[in-house]
Amino acid sequence: MNDLQGDYIVIKAKAQGVQVIGLTRGQDTKFHHTEKLDKNEVLICQFTDHTSAIKIRGRATVMTKYGTVDTED
């Protein structure tokens, strides 16, 4: 397994309707997957050869091997 596929992040929704959007890798960055989380739901995401970025809309806690970040209101 290469380093791109080794990173996971955990997203915990702190409010209803948190959106998690996966963005593609390559010359043209596009949305390729969307999830909507309810309050206190948890999603575990992985960066892959296809996913280069993850966008989060709404109040959430994001946990990575680098630390924890809370989104702003």
Automatic annotation (TrEMBL):
Entry keyword set:
RNA-binding, Transcription, Transcription regulation
Question: What residues does the Tryptophan RNA-binding attenuator protein domain cover?
Answer: 5-72
InterPro entries found in the cross-reference section: MtrB, Trp_RNA-bd_attenuator-like_dom, Trp_RNA-bd_attenuator_dom
**Can you tell which superkingdom this protein's organism belongs to?**
Bacteria
Keyword field contains Transcription: yes
- How does it associate, per the subunit comment? Oligomer of 11 identical subunits arranged in doughnut-like structure.
Family in the record: Belongs to the MtrB family.
Write the protein's name: Transcription attenuation protein MtrB
Specify the species. Paenibacillus solisilvae
